[in-house]
Amino acid sequence: MLSDSDLTALIITLKLAAISTLILLLIGTPIAWWLARSRWRFKFIFEAIVALPLVLPPTVLGFYLLITLGPHGPIGGLINWLGGNSLAFTFTGLVIGSVFYSMPFVVQPLQNAFTTIGNRPLEVAATLRASPLDCFFTVVVPLARSGFLTAAVLGFAHTVGEFGVVLMIGGNIPGETQVLSIAIYDHVEALEYGQAHLLSGGLLILSFLMLTSIYAVNRRFKVV
Amino acid sequence: MTIQARFKVAWPDFDLDIDLNIPARGITAIFGPSGCGKTTLLRKIAGLDYCEQGYLKIGDMLWQEGKYFVPTHQRALAYVFQEASLFSHLSIRGNLEYGIKRIPQSEHKVSIDKAIELLGIGHLLERKPEQLSGGERQRVAIARALAVSPKILLMDEPLSALDHSRKQEIMPYLESLHAELDIPVLYVSHSPDEVARLADHLVLLEHGKVRASGPITEMLTHLDLPLAHGDNAGALVQANISGHDEKYDLTYLDFSGGRITVAGNDLPIEHPVRLRIAARDVSLTLEQQTGTSILNIFPVVVAELTPEGTAQMMVRVQAGDVSLLSRVTRKSAAVLDLNPGKSLYAQVKSVALLS
User: For residues B135 and B170, is the Cβ–Cβ distance under 8 A?
Assistant: First the structure.
């Protein structure tokens, strides 16, 4: 069965994925809304920035985050100066890394869902006295619910599966920043194939179940 | 109460330059060919499109003046789109209640029950929009609009997405709105039939400008307007039921120019009806004919006439204070010596009862 350290890694992984997904939904929704609605001619630049993690090696993203958040980086330095600890090699650092890394997996399904809804329901709501915010929560969110589901599941699953970013920014501190994917790597290095099988198989089944659930709920779903 | 609207927008391929001052009562049709700016105008009145140079005042409600712009959701209006555009995540009841929940109690003038009854949708309330036919959906959309007790109802070709029989299904409901509710309606249409049946007032748009505006009966018979020409030209007559002839199953209608006889119906005496008399069904004679099968013959005076194509003339005649159109050949016009002021008789071959 799972060793204590593997169990800890599992809990950290799930906690990381849950917190990251929550944050991603909170900041990804307005970003996706803006990308779907804005007619600004240069918005494609922001679309490209959001999509960067899709093509960038995770180690690149992790490297720059490490530089930025580390004690001598602009953000890490500022936190140091304020008397806090640098975010590199901490759980908070992992969350920040995951949010960047999984951003496109949350923003793009939401943006698609918002675009699909189109203008008309918003106009109807306005003629029925709904303010823009009222309309967003009573019309847009219910109409985009499959987009939200897709975004949440993809964001969660993708965070569970990340490796490079986590390794760069989190290190591999058991009980703090050691997640499942890294634990598997450690097991393989130590030739503990039984443990590696257990964790790998578990992740495989979990990922498969999550994806089948969204494909089943939303048949129009397209990955990216 | 009046509607004052001024909008000016220039696009590379189209200019909208509207200056309107029309009564805010009854149904005003905004009529014109496709691409003349009808829908654009209606959207600006609703505040759905912002227009920098605009002025809009409806009754005592100022909705736009230069930079001052009341957003759509704060305007006491309702809008019916071409497609019903019901909220697919809500039931029919949920759709109907969406707007009424958002207006203060003191503004509730049209109850949901009244709207449901007027549009005959009581049996659909628990269904979802996708379970309804196109005609039913549009009736729900109209009821949903009425349920916010608007000070003005804007309708953008609400029948154009429907086939002929669906149109016929909804038309009576639209006519009943007119009779039952005191809400001014702006009705965008490119269909002369809808306009003739529904409108009291007509605004004729051409290339983004108001070509003419006035009471529907005048607009249909003004010879310098396009509506008074072509095969479908005709006059509207407002009349009241004055009696029924049981023996021959006929109904008599009185208007200021005389009495019209039509096939029998069971409308009550004094009931107002709207009649359409096509120009091609009206012939002119110098003396009152006897020994003719035509029942509807009125003394008229020629008001004006213009050529219609190369062989025909369109003649506007006055019967009482009602204008009728008559299409005659140019030869007949010469033989009868038709000139403004000439008295003669109009023989009406056929009359269509619109409501």
Answer: yes
